[in-house]
Structure formats: structure tokens, C-alpha cells
Specification:
mainly beta
Length: 119
């Protein structure tokens, strides 16, 4: 079982930056592919970025968001720059043994953290 806890969300203005963190309670964290997804009101959960041996980004966040991980701290980060109002959503981190961009493929999920970007 993998427990994921996100932090770092908040209310910011357009153009600002935020860094989300997700810490996992698992001994073999480095074995897991980690993903960030987001869900806006009335919309489906969508892939934002993922990291395994490589990194993967949705087109909508390329050049603005950066995913990274610190295996010694069992933590994955999402650095979000140049935030836009359309980035407003609940952001979730997720884990599975193999990388995927499909939400339903992931086995473990955090509780989510709200990111609100005002115009």
C-alpha cells in the first residue's frame, strides 16, 4: 500500500508560481512512476505531468511546469510557473509501477490540493 500526501496548493494571481509536493509512504519509492493530474469543476481528471526514467508533460503545461523527484525524501514536486486562470483545479499526485498518462491506470492517489489562479 502506498499513501500519498500532497501539499503546496493555494490562491495566486495569474503569472505567479507555486510548487506542489507529494510525499509517499513506501520503502521502494524509486520504483514507482509518479504522475500529477488535475480536475477542474465539471471536467474530467486530466494528466498534467509524470516522471519515471523520463518526464512527460501535457501540451497545455509544457514550458511552464516542471516535475522532479527526490527519492531520498520519497517526494515528487511540481513547479508551476506562469500560472493561468485555466490552471485552476484540484491537483492530485498518483503512483503506479509503470508510467501512464491515463488516470484510471494509477493505483494510488493523494487527497488532492486546490490551486486557484485569479485573473
Amino acid at each position: 500500500q502506498v499513501r500519498l500526501v500532497e501539499s503546496g496548493g493555494g490562491l495566486v494571481q495569474a503569472g505567479d508560481s507555486l510548487r506542489l509536493s507529494c510525499t509517499a509512504s513506501v520503502r521502494t519509492f524509486s520504483s514507482y512512476a509518479m504522475g500529477w493530474f488535475r480536475q477542474a469543476p465539471g471536467k474530467e481528471r486530466e494528466f498534467v505531468t509524470g516522471i519515471s526514467r523520463s518526464t512527460y508533460y501535457a501540451e497545455s503545461v509544457k514550458g511552464r511546469f516542471t516535475i522532479s523527484r527526490d527519492n531520498a525524501k520519497n517526494t515528487v514536486y511540481l513547479q508551476m510557473n506562469s500560472l493561468k486562470p485555466e490552471d485552476t483545479a484540484v491537483y492530485y499526485c498518483a503512483a503506479r509501477l509503470q508510467m501512464s498518462v491515463i488516470a484510471t491506470d494509477f493505483d494510488y492517489w493523494g487527497q488532492g490540493t486546490q490551486v486557484t489562479v485569479s485573473s
